């Protein structure tokens, strides 16, 4: 049997101390890294399944708040002073749950991208389960900052009550690109080691990356 060593107690004590200090930048719990990487792996096939299997320029109707990009995150951080990462992470789950649902809804039963999308959604749900488990329940009852609550309410509104001006059209590939880039920004502790120099929350970084890819393609 394994006896807890002195150093384990010491570590526990240090962690306890750490928890007493209010932490502005909530860390991504380590337990989330495996499901995050699994989802990240699935997302690497998004071009094949979300572009090639769809008609050219195919778009689906989404709420404008569902166009949730890295720049949306920067904007919210500017708008709400001291915005907790955890709040943004919760919003990320809320937004992308809706996005995945909308993509699945347009896919007929036998569409070649359907199994892929279903798998993606199931991995997303697994991740959400780990996320919820990794935090005390009170965290999810905490009041949200007004702007965020507002966004949240609009996302969960009955579709009939959404004003027509709030709808946007986006391709499934673009929506999954957003999901992927914002995931790497909001849970960056789990993605940091692979590319130490990359700041996944830096919008200009991403543009550069895109340009490079375009050049490689031509
Ligand atoms: C995430 O996926 C990309 C490919 O889409 C890969 O380059 C990167 O190494 C992956 N990151 C992790 C942490 O698995
Ligand atoms: C797709 O969109 C691009 C840019 O808006 C346009 O130039 C192109 O003609 C469109 N292709 C089709 C097949 O509709």
Structural class: mainly alpha
Strand count, sense and barrel status of the largest sheet are:
2 strands, antiparallel
The CATH topology is given as Growth Hormone, Chain: A
**Beta content:** under 5%
Number of strands: 2
The CATH superfamily is Interleukin-34
Fraction of residues in helix: 55-70%
Q: Please state the overall shape, judged from the principal axes of the Cα atoms.
A: globular
What strand line-up does the widest sheet have? 1-2
In round numbers, the mean pLDDT is: 86
CATH class: Mainly Alpha
Q: List the ions, cofactors and other small molecules found in this model.
A: 2-acetamido-2-deoxy-beta-D-glucopyranose
Write the CATH architecture name.
Up-down Bundle
Which segments are poorly predicted (pLDDT under 50) over 5 or more consecutive residues? 17-26
Termini separation comes to 60 Å
How many domains make up the coordinates?
A: 1
Query: If helices are DSSP runs of H or I spanning 4 or more residues, what is the number of helices?
Result: 9
What series of H and E elements makes up the topology?
A: HHHEHHHHEHH
Radius of gyration: 19 Å
Signal peptide: 1-26
GO cellular component, one term: extracellular space
Pfam family, one: IL34
GO molecular function: macrophage colony-stimulating factor receptor binding
């Amino acid at each position: 049997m394994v006896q807890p060593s002195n150093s384990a107690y010491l570590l526990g004590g240090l962690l306890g101390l750490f928890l007493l200090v209010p932490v502005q930048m909530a860390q991504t719990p380590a337990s989330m890294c495996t499901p995050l990487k699994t989802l990240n792996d699935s997302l690497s096939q998004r071009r094949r399944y979300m572009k090639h299997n769809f008609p050219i320029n195919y778009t689906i109707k989404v709420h404008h708040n569902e166009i949730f990009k890295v720049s949306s995150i920067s904007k919210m951080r500017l708008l709400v002073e001291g915005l907790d990462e955890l709040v943004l992470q919760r919003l990320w789950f809320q937004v992308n749950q809706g996005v995945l649902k909308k993509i699945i809804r347009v896919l007929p039963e036998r569409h070649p991208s359907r199994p892929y999308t279903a798998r993606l959604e199931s991995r997303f749900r697994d991740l959400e389960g780990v996320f919820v488990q990794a935090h005390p329940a009170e965290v999810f009852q905490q009041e949200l900052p007004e702007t965020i609550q507002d966004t949240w309410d609009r996302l969960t509104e009955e579709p009939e009550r959404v004003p027509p001006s709030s709808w946007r059209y986006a391709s499934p590939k673009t929506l999954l690109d957003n999901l992927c880039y914002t995931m790497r920004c909001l849970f960056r502790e789990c993605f940091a080691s692979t590319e130490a120099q990359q700041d996944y929350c830096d919008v200009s970084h991403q543009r550069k990356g895109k340009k490079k890819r375009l050049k490689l393609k031509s």
